[in-house]
Amino acid sequence: LLPGQDEVHWETAPDDLIGVSAEFPIHIEAGERWELRISATPEFADGVGATPVPVILGHAPTERASIETDNPFFNRLLTRSEEDLAALMTSFPDGTLPAAGIPWYVAPFGRDSLIVGLQTFHQAPRDAEGSLRILAALQGKNVDEFTEEQPGKILHEMRYGEMARTGEVPHRPYYGTVDATSLFVLLFAETVAWTADDTLYHDLLDEVRAALEWIEIYGDLDGDGLIEYRSDQTSSIHIRHQVWKDSHDSLHHIDGNQASGNITPVEVQGYTYAAYRRLADVSSAFGDERFAAELRRKALELQQNFQTAFWVEEDRYLAQALDGDKRPVRATSSNPAHILFTGILSDEQAQAVINRIQHPDMDSGWGIRTLSSAAPSYNPMSYHNGSVWPHDNSMIAAGCYQQGAGDAANRIFASLFDVGVRSDGDRLNELYCGFGRAGTASDAPVAYPGACSPQAWAAGSYPHLIRSSLGMVADVETGTVKVNPHLPAFIDSVTIRNMTVLGRTGSITVARDGCGYRVQSSGLPLQDGI
Predict the structure, then answer these.
(1) Lowest-pLDDT range, 54-58, 203-207, 452-456, 477-481?
(2) 262-265 and 321-322 as β-strands: parallel, antiparallel, unpaired?
(3) What is the pLDDT of residue 346?
(4) Given CA atoms 165, 167, 169, 173 in this order, what sign does their dihedral have?
(5) For helices 180-195 and 125-137, what crossing angle results, to 10°?
(6) Are 145 and 197 in contact (CB under 8 A)?
(7) Rounded Cα distance, 379 and 337, in Å
(8) Where are the alpha helices (DSSP H) in 3-124?
(9) Residue 454: is the preceding peptide bond cis (ω within 30°)?
(10) By the 8 A CB rule, do 157 and 171 touch?
(11) Are the C-beta atoms of 435 and 380 separated by less than 8 Å?
C-alpha cells in the first residue's frame, strides 16, 4: 500500500512523506496529548476499493478513578498500569475496548476484555460497559462449525485482515472458547451492581439470557450440568484447549499424558457459579425475584455437582479438569485457585487450595506458577506449564482475600510488586518464566521470550489487587459499598479519588490505625460502621 490521496487519509499531515515512510515532528509539553488517526483504503488488483477498516490504538480513555498509595514505588507501577490500559484502548469497527496485547493481539478478545473489566470496573466502569456492549453486539446467532459460533456464545477473538476475510482463518469472529460466555454474564452482573445502572441492565438483559441459554444448552455437551469443550480439534487454525490456558499442550494427567475427549475445565464451573449468584443478587435488586430464585437454584445444583466431581481427596486439591471419561486430571495447577473468589468451594476445600498453592513447587517467589514444578510436564519456559502470569496471580490473590486468607494474598501481592520494580519500564509483562527466586539482591524474574508488553490483563493486575486488598464490594441489597481492608506490609494507606459507584462520585481513603484501619470517605455510600 503506497500512501496517496485516494488510499490513505491523515487527520494530521506528515511533515515528510518518502515512499511508505511518513515523518511527523512532535513536541509535547508535560500534560499534553498528541494523537494521530489514519484511515487506509486498500485497492485490489481489479481496481475495486474496499471499505476502510480503521483501527485506532491509544483511544482517548474514559474518565477513570485515580489510585494513590503512600508507597511512591508502587504508585509508579500503578501509573504505568493506567497508561498501558489507556494505550490499549482501541477503536475497532465494532467499537472501543482494550486490545489484548502488543504486538501479537491487537484485536478484540472476549475473555481478555472481560477479565480486564472484572479487574478494573471500580476504576473505569464505563470501559467495562463498553466491552459488554461490543461483545453483546457480536454475540453468536447461528451454528457454524468453522467459526464455532453458536446462539448466545461470546466470541474468543476477532480479526479484520485478509486471512479472516478470505476464510483462511475462522476469526470473523471466532468463538472457540468456553469461558467467555460465563465471564460475560459475571462482568455484566458486577458492572450493574457497581453502577446501579438500570439502563445497562435492561439494554443487555436479553443478551445475558441468551448467554445463559448457551451455558445450559450448548455448553453442557453431555447433560451432566457441567460445561465442556471438545478437545478433538485437529486443525491448526482451531484452538484445542478452549480456556485461558489455550495452548495445545496445557492439560496433562499426572503421568504426563495429555488429556483427551470432551474436557470439563475446573475454572469455568466456578465462573458460571459466580455469574449465577451475582446475577441473582442484581435481578433481585431490580425486582425480578422469580429470575433470581431460578439462578440461585441453578447455582446450588452446580455447586453440589462440582464439589463431588472435582475434589481429589488423595491430593487434597481440585482436578484441573475432567477428561472425556470424566476422570479427574490431577495436575496440580493454578486453575483451581481461580475459583477461590467465586464461592463455589466449601470452606474446607478453599483452605486446602490456599495451603497447597503456598508450597515451593507452586510458589516461585515471583508468584504462583501455572503448574507445579514437580509435574512431569513442568517447564519454566513453557507458555502455560510452569510460567508465572500476573493476571492469574491477581485472580488467585482476590480469592485469598475473599476467603479471609489475607496473609496468603499479601504474599502474592508482594511478589508481583517485586516483579514490577525489577521489570523494564515499571511494567508487568504478559507472563514470566517460572524459575524460582534465588533471594539475592541482584535476583530478578526471567522475562518470557515473546511476551506481550504492554498486555491488558497484566496491566489490570495492580488495580485489581488494590480493590481486593481493600475488600471493596458493592452491596446491591443495601445500596452501599463494603470495605474490609487487609493491606500488604509495603502499603499503609490508599486513596481513590473520582470513583463513581452506585450513582455517586467521591473519594475514599483507607489507612492503618494501630491494629486496625481508619476509613474516610467523601460522597460515597459506605456501609455504616465501616
Answers:
(1) 54-58
(2) antiparallel
(3) 97
(4) positive
(5) 140
(6) no
(7) 20
(8) 72-88, 110-120
(9) yes
(10) yes
(11) yes
CA gap 342, 408 in Å, rounded? 17
3-state secondary structure at position 325? coil
- Residue that the C-alpha cell 476475510 belongs to: 165
State how beta strands 311-312 and 317-318 pair: antiparallel
Say if residues 191 and 121 touch (Cβ distance below 8 Å).
Answer: yes
Q: Given this model, what pLDDT does residue 528 score?
A: 64
Asked if 377 and 333 count as a contact pair (C-beta separation under 8 A), the reply is no
Q: How far apart are CA 136 and CA 210, in angstroms?
A: 10
Please state, in angstroms and rounded to a whole number, the distance separating the CA atoms of residues 152 and 212. Answer: 8
User: Which whole number is the average pLDDT over 421-430?
Assistant: 94
Determine the residue type at 369. R
The H-or-E segment that residue 328 falls in is strand 328-329
User: Which residue, 375, 457, 364, is CA-closest to 415?
Assistant: 364
Task: Tell me the C-alpha distance between 511 and 518, whole Å.
Answer: 5
Query: What are the beta bridge partners of residue 264?
Result: 322
Residue 126: closest CA among 194, 209, 208 = 194
Compute the distance between CA of residue 218 and CA of residue 212 in angstroms, rounded to an integer.
Answer: 10
CA distance 250 to 259: 9
Q: Where are the alpha helices (DSSP H) in 456-518?
A: 456-459, 461-470
Q: Which cell numbers in the block locate residue 64?
A: 477513570
**Start-to-end CA span in the chain (Å):** 61
What nine digits make up the cell of 441? 539482591
Helix (H/G/I), strand (E/B), else coil: 215: helix
Helix, strand or coil for residue 294? helix
CA distance 21 to 6: 17
Q: Diameter of the chain by CA atoms?
A: 76
What does the DSSP 8-state code read for residue 228?
-
Cell triple for residue 182? Answer: 460465563
The answer to whether the peptide bond before residue 376 is cis (omega within 30 degrees of 0) is no
Distances (CA, A) of 71 to 172, 491, 493, 513: 45, 6, 8, 17
In whole angstroms, give the CA distance from residue 426 to residue 441. Answer: 18
At 48, the pLDDT band (50, 70, 90 cuts) reads very low
- In terms of pTM, does the model score above 0.85? yes
Distance CA 152, CA 374 (A): 40
Q: At what angle do helices 125-137 and 110-120 cross, to 10 degrees?
A: 160
The pLDDT, as a whole number, for residue 24 is 82
The SS3 call for residue 72 is helix
Q: CA 283 to CA 281: how far, in whole Å?
A: 6
320, 334 in Cβ contact below 8 A? no
Residue with cell 508482594: 414
Q: Report the SS3 class of residue 265.
A: strand
Pairwise CA distance, residues 286 & 198, whole Å:
8
Dist. CA 13–CA 291, nearest whole Å: 56
Mean pLDDT value across the chain: 92
